[in-house]
Design a protein that fits this description.
conserved putative lor/sdh protein from methanococcus maripaludis s2 fold; single chain; 4 helices; 5-stranded antiparallel sheet; alpha+beta; 16% helix; elongated; Elongation Factor Tu (Ef-tu), domain 3; 12 strands; 249 residues
């Protein structure tokens, strides 16, 4: 073919090159003298196949994508920063990344992007950090936490309460606030929570600095409130206890 039909020969070689076959592969096909129905096609970039867009027997058109290859040597971590934290963040700032997959390890990262738009529903801004992942330890979709050097200053400007203080009612989260320090009386209050930090939950609304809440034994107090017909986790509106049952044992 090379001698008898040089134009066809060149066209076949060019076709194989368009299919990303290397010169070595093409020479092997020539030397074999046999028709090859199947041959490996190698990607021109290194990475991990994260999506397969075709299956055996499919017809494809020129330029149609067949696989999605992602280079995971460098990955992004995306966070939600609260409105009162934005002024403390800047591009190029260092951040420590931790994940439950490697609880004893910290990954170094730098903030590469701060969204100029605020999410009006959550009052947060998207922050993106870039970190090296040459060992492939971090996987797409993992949950991570970012810690800044200014973390203590940020927390001082926020209200953070222990996990044990919060009762969940499905869509609502409530705590018990001390209303009378002398008589140790408490009232249930619904609050809005933000992220879970190492120290507890960030309170977005519902509590003021200086207010005291129950941090242990919350279920016991809530159960007593339900028995007395007071506002509780399962009873948003207080009800009067029926007569004849107040002293029932």
């Amino acid at each position: 073919l090379k001698e008898s039909q040089p134009e066809l020969y060149r066209a076949v070689r060019n076709k194989l090159k368009l299919w990303k076959l290397s010169e070595e592969q093409i020479q092997q096909i020539e030397k074999s003298g046999q028709v090859r129905e199947n041959f490996p096609v190698y990607a021109n970039v290194s990475g991990t196949v994260t999506e397969i867009m075709v299956k055996a027997g499919d017809y494809i058109n020129q330029g149609s994508p067949m696989f999605k290859i992602t280079n995971l040597n460098t990955v992004w971590a995306v966070f939600d920063a609260y409105e009162n934290q934005v002024s403390l963040l800047k591009e190029g700032q260092k951040i420590d990344i931790i994940t439950k997959a490697y609880p004893d390890k910290k990954f170094d990262a730098k903030i590469s992007f701060i969204d100029p738009l605020l999410n009006s529903a959550t009052r947060t801004v998207k922050v993106r950090a870039v970190l090296q992942n040459t060992k492939g330890q971090l996987k797409p979709g993992m949950f991570v936490t970012g810690n800044l050097g200014l973390r203590s200053k940020i927390i001082n400007d926020m209200i953070v309460i222990p996990e044990s203080a919060v009762l969940w009612t499905g869509e609502r989260s409530v705590v018990y606030v001390k209303t009378d320090p002398e008589n140790l009386t408490f009232a249930m209050r619904e609050i809005t929570l933000g992220d879970l930090l190492n120290d507890g939950y960030v309170v977005l609304s519902g509590l003021e600095k200086g207010e005291e809440i129950v941090t242990n034994g919350t279920f016991t107090i809530d159960a007593a409130a339900q028995l007395k017909g007071k506002k509780s986790m399962m009873n948003e509106k207080a009800e009067k206890v029926m007569a004849g049952h107040e002293n029932h044992n």
